[in-house]
């Protein structure tokens, strides 16, 4: 190394060079520390340093560079290297140091003394007597002292943790005897290595050595080391190796363009680690178990996979954590990904595959998630694992739910490697077609054709294709399922209708639910059922007849009868189909007995066909819909909220029809409860664009319309409600109870002053409700019809609504009818009757939890009581508001001016004026002044 004479050096010799040692990257700070120690030693006092680091962190290179710096500064340099294979050789490290000191070149012109052989100072065998020990230790000390008297001495020992015991004793012996000599001692040690000999590290290095901790190289130095640009790739290289120079060297020898760093490793590194770990009990086995298990490496599984008892496993883990080979965590893992890949690369392929299969079995038996088990099964290639097929299929299902179809494809492809029956192979191929459809839509049809080719049993094929129809329910997925079912049906049709009818049934429902327009003609489809005598076929026929009756809105009694027949057998798949479920729950919401039966059918232990839907969700949703219809809003909201959380966790709230229906129901219930913030937050999370092709989108549109109408956006709410109606009509849906959009559109139209539109909507709603005939639906339509009328007919309709709803379970609908009837009675001057009606309305709406309705009923009740108290003071029985409006009208103000002055709607002003005309016995505004003047004169008298 180049040196230069510094005339101002306080040591009177060469200065310590400041430039970096050749080939040593990223260690400038550490070398500066060595430089400072050299200066301190040359001042005549002994100093020491311990360089610690992980395997391969460059301790040896650091020691070599330190020796070069010391030699350039005029030190006599002696460096010894301890070796694991030479630990048993007595004095091996000490003799290396002695040879370095006694063979140092003499000063120019001075006589060269006889050089004693190292064995003359340190014998080959440990001294046996105390005298021999003392003589050997003194000889080593005198050698070091003699060299130090000639000039500063650098003693470096690499891997001190591997040095033989006698050499360690020699170093400990001289350490306090050279304190006043220019001696620099530098030791390197593996971090965390537990010394088990008689000499401690501090006894060799002194009580206060400088500790130099070698850490991984930074990204800039990694890039320089690998000769790559300092960008993202260099950062990834640093992440997988920790910046460890030894690992980086192995990586550099394998770098190729486009390589996947996540799988990069070196079998040579794995072999080195395996060999080094052999000195620790069971460490190689535990090391391999950690590499195999990866993130699943819990302590108990590690011990089982390594085949050792827990105490032995714990000791091995403790050792490897201390040397930073494993992370210090509850689930130990290899510190760097490159190391894990290297350990795996060192394992023979068969050994690795078998061990991965054992790990998968241990995880499965421990109840781990299928996808975690599946990850290990993917690595257990070329090994037959029959039990793995179902696990891989379930893992594939979960992966699609989590939005990782590529992983799903890998799981299913691995499942196809097993020995499979034609039935199971066909099912897996269809599941694979769905997963591939999300990755590469063009490949899915070919996979479906491959599945069709494996049909060897018609019933099984129909069952598998039906399962696909039930599993894939939204958007493009539904189209894939319908097209696949068509191919299966064409193949099965040659066997007669008995072989294909279940598939045709589900295909018909899927078609009906996925179309924006009218569903397939039910009459054409129904003709195929006539010859079938199978009970399950007849049960399905009853279900479809019920559905057709609902869609036509013909007769509630007939629909209920058909649904009852459909529920009498064992065929839950029919009621799990999204389109069928959506309409069935709406129609059966007023039938407690059939609702209970439906929930029993749906509440099955097996997973739902639709992989978006959590277990038990359909029964919970059906129960929530029934509670909502009955007016138990709080309990209904609890059911809906729990489901929405589960759908949110799966990320399918905007995709799955059942999830969309559940969210829409929760929005609607939240509006009735007065929880507008909750409804808005939920609505903002739903992607309307993702739900456009769904039948349940209509209900979501209806729920949004109700929310907007209730939160000061009547125009937008009206448009949503009308949009829902147009879509339902285009779909051929005449059932008024699915989403009662007309009733709420009529009320919103009234608020907007569109009385003609409101009357027309109310009339249409009443006609549809009378045709359907269910009390809740009919009572609601009568309420709306009475609301848009201001004459005696309005009161008659509202009274009839109360009578009809009083015989039903629809408590909320009854509370609404009572409220509207009480308000109308109050406007007609029937304050006493209004008080009684509104008292029942307030009590009933409060019981339902409908806070906005309860508040309105309470306010109307308070006004009615006030009117009742003040009516005696007025000859004509005008309420205070009626008198005020009539007085302003008599003074020439228009209805609009009165409405603005009193903060009322024009419709309310019109109602008050009508009530005043009737009570005063006049026909119009021109007679108001005289009628009111007459009343005032009578009062004055």
From TrEMBL:
<dbReference type="GO" id="GO:0003677">
    <property type="term" value="F:DNA binding"/>
</dbReference>
<feature type="domain" description="HTH luxR-type">
    <location>
        <begin position="871"/>
        <end position="936"/>
    </location>
</feature>
<dbReference type="InterPro" id="IPR016032">
    <property type="entry name" value="Sig_transdc_resp-reg_C-effctor"/>
</dbReference>
<keyword id="KW-0547">Nucleotide-binding</keyword>
<dbReference type="GO" id="GO:0005737">
    <property type="term" value="C:cytoplasm"/>
</dbReference>
<dbReference type="InterPro" id="IPR000792">
    <property type="entry name" value="Tscrpt_reg_LuxR_C"/>
</dbReference>
<dbReference type="GO" id="GO:0005524">
    <property type="term" value="F:ATP binding"/>
</dbReference>
<dbReference type="InterPro" id="IPR027417">
    <property type="entry name" value="P-loop_NTPase"/>
</dbReference>
<dbReference type="Pfam" id="PF13191">
    <property type="entry name" value="AAA_16"/>
</dbReference>
<dbReference type="InterPro" id="IPR041664">
    <property type="entry name" value="AAA_16"/>
</dbReference>
<dbReference type="Pfam" id="PF00196">
    <property type="entry name" value="GerE"/>
</dbReference>
<dbReference type="InterPro" id="IPR036388">
    <property type="entry name" value="WH-like_DNA-bd_sf"/>
</dbReference>
<protein>
    <submittedName>
        <fullName>LuxR family transcriptional regulator fused with ATPase domain</fullName>
    </submittedName>
</protein>
<dbReference type="GO" id="GO:0006355">
    <property type="term" value="P:regulation of DNA-templated transcription"/>
</dbReference>
<feature type="region of interest" description="Disordered">
    <location>
        <begin position="103"/>
        <end position="128"/>
    </location>
</feature>
<keyword id="KW-0067">ATP-binding</keyword>
<dbReference type="GO" id="GO:0004016">
    <property type="term" value="F:adenylate cyclase activity"/>
</dbReference>
């Amino acid at each position: 190394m180049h040196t230069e004479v510094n005339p101002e050096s306080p040591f009177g010799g060469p200065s310590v060079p400041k430039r970096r040692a050749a080939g040593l990257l990223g260690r400038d700070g550490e070398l500066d520390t060595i430089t400072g120690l050299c200066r301190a030693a040359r001042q005549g006092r002994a100093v020491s340093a311990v360089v610690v680091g992980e395997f391969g962190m460059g301790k040896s290179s650091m020691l070599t560079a330190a020796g070069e710096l010391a030699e350039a500064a005029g030190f006599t340099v002696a460096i010894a290297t301890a070796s694991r294979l030479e630990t048993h050789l007595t004095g091996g490290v000490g003799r290396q140091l002695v040879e370095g000191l006694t063979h140092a070149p003499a000063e120019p012109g001075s006589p060269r003394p006889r050089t004693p052989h190292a064995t003359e100072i340190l014998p080959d065998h440990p001294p046996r007597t105390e005298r021999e020990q003392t003589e050997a230790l003194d000889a080593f000390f005198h050698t070091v002292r003699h060299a130090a008297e000639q000039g500063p001495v650098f003693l470096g020992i690499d891997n001190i943790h591997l040095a033989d015991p006698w050499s360690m004793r020699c170093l400990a012996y001289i350490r306090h005897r050279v304190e006043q000599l220019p001696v620099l001692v530098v030791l390197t040690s593996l971090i965390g290595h537990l010394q088990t000999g008689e000499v401690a590290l501090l006894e060799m290095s002194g009580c206060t050595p400088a500790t130099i901790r070698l850490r991984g190289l930074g990204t800039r130095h990694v890039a320089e080391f690998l000769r790559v640009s300092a960008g993202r790739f260099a950062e990834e290289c640093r992440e997988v190796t920790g910046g460890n120079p030894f690992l980086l060297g192995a990586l550099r020898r394998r770098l190729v363009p486009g390589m996947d760093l996540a799988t990069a490793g070196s079998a040579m590194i794995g072999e080195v680690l395996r060999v080094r770990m052999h000195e620790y009990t069971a460490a190689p086995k535990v090391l391999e178990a950690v590499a195999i298990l990866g993130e699943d490496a819990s302590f108990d599984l590690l011990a089982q996979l390594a085949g050792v008892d827990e105490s032995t496993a714990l000791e091995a883990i403790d050792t490897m954590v201390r040397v930073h080979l494993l992370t210090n965590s509850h689930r130990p893992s290899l510190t760097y990904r490159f190391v894990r890949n290297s350990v795996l690369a060192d394992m023979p392929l068969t050994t690795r595959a078998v061990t991965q299969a054992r790990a998968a079995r241990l995880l499965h038996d421990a109840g781990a998630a299928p996808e975690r088990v599946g990850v290990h099964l993917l690595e257990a290639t070329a090994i037959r694992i029959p039990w793995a097929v179902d696990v891989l299929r379930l893992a594939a299902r979960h992966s699609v739910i989590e939005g990782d179809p590529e992983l799903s494809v890998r799981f299913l492809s691995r499942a196809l490697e097993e020995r499979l029956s034609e039935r199971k192979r066909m099912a897996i191929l269809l599941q694979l077609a769905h997963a591939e459809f999300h990755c590469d839509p063009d490949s899915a049809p070919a996979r479906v054709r491959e599945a069709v080719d494996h049909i060897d049993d018609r019933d099984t094929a129909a069952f598998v294709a039906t399962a696909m129809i039930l599993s894939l329910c939204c958007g493009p997925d539904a189209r894939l399922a319908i097209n696949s079912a068509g191919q299966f049906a064409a193949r099965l049709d040659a066997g007669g209708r008995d072989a294909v009818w279940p598939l045709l049934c589900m295909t018909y429902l899927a078609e009906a639910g996925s179309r924006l327009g009218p569903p397939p003609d039910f009459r054409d489809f129904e003709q195929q059922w006539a010859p079938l005598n199978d009970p399950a076929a007849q049960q399905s026929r009853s279900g479809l007849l019920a559905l057709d009756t609902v869609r036509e809105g013909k007769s509630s009694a007939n629909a209920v009868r058909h649904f009852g027949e459909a529920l009498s057998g064992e065929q839950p798949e029919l009621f799990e189909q999204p389109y069928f479920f959506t309409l069935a729950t709406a129609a059966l919401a007023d039938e407690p007995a059939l609702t209970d039966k439906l929930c029993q059918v749906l509440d099955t232990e097996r997973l739902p066909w639709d992989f978006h839907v959590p277990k038990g969700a359909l029964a919970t949703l059906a129960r929530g819909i029934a509670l909502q219809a009955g007016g138990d809003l709080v309990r209904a909201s609890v059911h809906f909220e729990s489901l929405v959380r589960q759908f949110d966790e799966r990320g399918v709230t905007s995709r799955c029809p059942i999830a969309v229906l559940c969210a829409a129901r929760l929005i609607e219930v939240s509006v009735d409860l007065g929880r507008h913030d909750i409804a808005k937050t939920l609505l903002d999370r739903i992607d309307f664009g993702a739900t456009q092709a769904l039948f349940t989108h209509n209900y979501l549109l209806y729920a949004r319309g109700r929310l907007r109408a209730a939160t000061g956006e009547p125009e937008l709410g009206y448009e949503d409600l009308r949009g829902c109606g147009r879509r339902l009509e285009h779909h051929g849906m005449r059932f008024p109870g699915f989403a009662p959009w007309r009733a709420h559109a009529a009320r919103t139209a009234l608020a907007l002053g569109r009385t003609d539109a409101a009357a027309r909507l109310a009339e249409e709603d009443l006609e549809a409700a009378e045709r359907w005939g269910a009390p809740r639906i009919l009572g609601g339509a009568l309420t709306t019809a009475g609301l848009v009328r201001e004459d005696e007919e309005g009161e008659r309709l509202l009274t009839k609504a109360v009578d009809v709803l009083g015989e039903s379970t629809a408590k909320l609908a009854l509370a609404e009818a009572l409220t509207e009837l009480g308000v109308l009675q109050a406007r007609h001057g029937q304050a006493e009757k209004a008080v009684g009606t509104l008292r029942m309305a307030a009590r009933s709406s409060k019981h339902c939890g409908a806070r906005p309705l309860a508040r309105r009923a309470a306010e109307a009740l308070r006004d009615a009581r006030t009117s009742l108290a003040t009516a005696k003071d007025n000859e004509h029985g005008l309420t205070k508001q009626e008198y005020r409006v009539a007085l302003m009208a008599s003074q020439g103000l228009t209805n609009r001016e009165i409405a603005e002055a009193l903060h009322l709607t024009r419709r309310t002003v019109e109602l008050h004026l009508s009530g005043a005309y009737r009570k005063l016995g006049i026909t119009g505004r021109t007679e108001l002044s005289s009628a009111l003047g007459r009343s005032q004169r009578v009062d004055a008298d």
